[in-house]
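Prompt: May I have another protein with tokenized structure?
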Amino acid sequence: MTSANTRETAAYAQALLKNIREMAKTPIRIMEVCGTHTMAIAKSGIRELLPDTVTLLSGPGCPVCVTAESDINAACLLARLPKVILATYGDMIRVPGNNDSLALEMSNGADIRIIYSSQDALRLAAANPGYEVVLLSVGFETTAPTTAIVLETAIKEEIRNFSVLSLHKAVAPVLNFLLADPELSIDAFLLPGHISVVTGIDEFKFIADKYKKPSVVTGFEAVDILEAITMLLFQQHAGEKAIDIQYKAVRKEGNTAARNYINTYFQRVHCAWRGLGIIPFSGYALKDAYSSLKAAVRFNLKPVELPEAYCICGKIIKGQKRPQECELFGTSCTPAAPRGPCMVSEEGSCAAIYKFEYIRKGK
């Protein structure tokens, strides 16, 4: 970006902030659903620039943060098995289970490989025919299609030492779950642009139709977010309850090819979310036709349910608490030594606020 463009962007951001300050006479509590939004808000200092009437709340859109302890327990069990290579993304390594983590299993000799794409896991399987390679797949509708493509490739190329532990989740059901909770107070939503590119916007129509809340699908730059907040305030002033699109890459119908991949290989199932419990039809599990590729079936995994450790991540991703309200925040829980998942991932609200707000203020 040239300096002239930078100046133009800065001037536009200032104009948006001026409009927000003039319009935000009535309090509004806005949940930014996506962890990438949370990070962008913290990094750019948006929260400190907004008037007191505008409250931004972190939502459940960080896949690492919402991974249940029971799922981490299952991954650790897999990692301990002989002749098993567990392939996973770097953020998952330090996510705590019940007194365990993949990092601890690695230190005890487990063969855990950090990958950068699901294709990496398949290449590991092809290169290690004497081992079982398990892909620990996480994410929302943006990453589920890539897992489906890898499954299709494994079948076509007859790579038989490959399986998947699917922890993929759907975003719309968890938002419905939050809105149905009478204890929560959320007035409007910033919806994730990249997920909406896949799903389209009809997936989120219930926010306006059923719960009468405005929402805007937005991008991930600071200016995108400020523009989306302005659009929400226009809806508030006009008494509208609709889904607006700020992120121009989003089509109403979404990405048909990506959705077809998801629908071919996955089915919606009840799913555990950390701190939230079981949410109906919020998880993506492999269809029964592909049970031979399910790691849980192949290795006869049994659920390991233990009491959750003390952590208020659940309340944070519900918008009930700010990270600074946790007694562990910044003391015994830091990015270097996380006690909860919201402090592990870069997109976790605790990590983002610690890095970009807590440190910036000299705390």
Summary: The chain has 15 helices and eleven strands. Residues 3-23 form the longest helix (21 residues). The chain has two domains: 12-311, 313-358. The domain at 12-311 is CATH 3.40.50.11740 (Rossmann fold).
